[in-house]
Design brief:
Structural class: alpha+beta
Number of helices: 13
Distance between the termini: 47 Å
Strand content: 5-15%
Helix content: 25-40%
Shape: globular
Radius of gyration: 23 Å
Length: 404
């Protein structure tokens, strides 16, 4: 494997992985904030993707689990579904390898992917519960997939080089052999809740129809109310998304939460205001705190100054977001497809500023045990795309998009 391949794999893991995530240091502290939940939709337990670039899968399955909870009206947490991430990952890797070879290597063959990938795998192959397929066949309790990703990439690179000048009919079996060794063979049938299923019949029993979901974005380099393929490397299936103006883009998210639906969120988390402690705010880095005067150094602070400092701490100022600034971030590569998470509610801070509740896939980490509070401005600016149930889209917007 050459150095470029190693760098590509590292980059794909950089922000999708709890162990490798690198974010800029910031003075924002959870202790400065007082959050009050406005609405919270049921989600399943926190998971940990650990050292794997599979946030796209962990977040998407968490989203689908909430869809099942809502559709079936499940109240008992013990009855919540728990879908196998590695079943999805395994099938996605195999499909990707085939496309990589067909395109003679002109495709991003790495750990990162998109939400459309998960929906396509569910459509083509079904779903499996975690208890039936853990995909942990290589001696770890949590995903550690750097070696697997490197081996798969090296294998398909060798196939593309094609020393025989004609592909053999067994190269896919060789790829499957690697997946079997690391992840284990997928059972053709399994038992769940006392019933026997195949992956396809289990998907149907869960009531999951991939056609019920729509992918939405908001950028001006394509016409609004049309579909386009979002131009990022991880969108290797070339999945399309609907394009909405920013105000309607946000209206869909808010309508979803209001109607009891959750949102599958993808976007940029490389900002200074996205902390490892459970906060995501769109910091105005040009707004600097006022420093003390030279007089204070020698004679101390006045009583008025002391009383002022005893007031509740002023929260950092956020940038305002427009359609133009959002587009600028995408065009200049400061807004990228770093990470996928699960948006499941709203909250406000002590100033009444609106936030969204975000379930991450880094385990019970940070000040809020795996939950992030993401400000409305951060969502406006840094969301690359999101997926919702089409029934969560307001009727007037659905009509504009031609969604049945």
């Amino acid at each position: 494997m050459n150095i470029k391949s190693i760098i590509a794999i590292a980059a794909s893991l950089a922000l999708c992985s709890s162990s490798f995530a690198q974010v800029k240091p910031t003075a924002v502290k959870p202790s400065d904030y007082e959050f009050k939940t406005v609405k919270e939709i049921p989600v399943t337990s926190m998971k940990n993707q650990y050292r794997s670039g599979t946030c796209w899968c962990f977040s998407a399955l968490s989203f689908l689990e909430s869809e099942v909870i809502k559709a079936k009206g499940i109240k008992d947490e013990a009855q919540y579904p728990d879908f196998s991430e590695m079943f999805i990952v395994r099938n996605a890797y195999r499909d990707r390898a085939e496309k990589y070879v067909r395109l003679n290597g002109f495709l991003n063959m790495a750990a990162g992917s998109g939400f459309g990938d998960v929906l396509q795998v569910v459509r083509d192959y079904g779903l499996v519960p975690q208890e039936a397929y853990s995909g942990m066949n290589y001696g770890y309790d949590l995903p550690v997939q750097g070696e697997l990703d490197a081996v798969l990439k090296g294998y398909v690179e060798a196939v593309v080089k094609n020393p025989n000048r004609q592909l053999t009919p067994v190269w896919k079996k060789g790829f499957d052999g690697i997946l079997n060794a690391y992840l284990g063979e997928v059972p053709e049938t399994f038992t769940a809740g006392g019933k026997e299923y195949t992956p396809e019949t289990y998907r149907d029993a869960m009531g999951i129809n991939p056609d019920d979901y729509v992918n939405i974005s908001s950028f001006t380099h394509h016409p609004f109310y049309s579909q386009f393929v979002i131009e990022v490397e991880d969108n290797w299936r070339w999945s399309p998304c609907y394009n909405l103006p920013l105000d309607e883009f946000m209206a869909v998210i808010d309508n979803a939460i209001d109607k009891g639906y959750t949102v599958l969120w993808g976007g940029d988390v490389s900002e200074a205001g996205f902390t490892r402690d459970g906060l995501a705010v769109l910091l105005d880095t040009n707004a600097k705190p006022t420093s003390g005067s030279d007089q204070e150094r020698w004679v101390g602070k006045s009583e008025e100054k002391k009383a002022e400092e005893e007031k509740p701490k002023e929260l950092p100022k956020e940038l305002e977001v427009t359609q133009e600034t959002r587009q600028q971030g995408y065009d200049n590569k400061t807004t990228t497809d770093d990470h996928g998470m699960h948006l499941y509610g709203t909250a406000v801070d002590q100033n009444g500023t609106k936030y969204y509740l975000i379930k991450n896939s880094w385990g019970e980490t940070g000040a809020f045990k795996g939950v992030w509070y993401m400000s409305e401005n951060f969502v406006k600016a840094k969301t690359l795309n999101f997926v919702v149930n089409k029934n969560a889209v307001p009727k007037d917007i659905r009509k504009k998009l031609g969604i049945k």
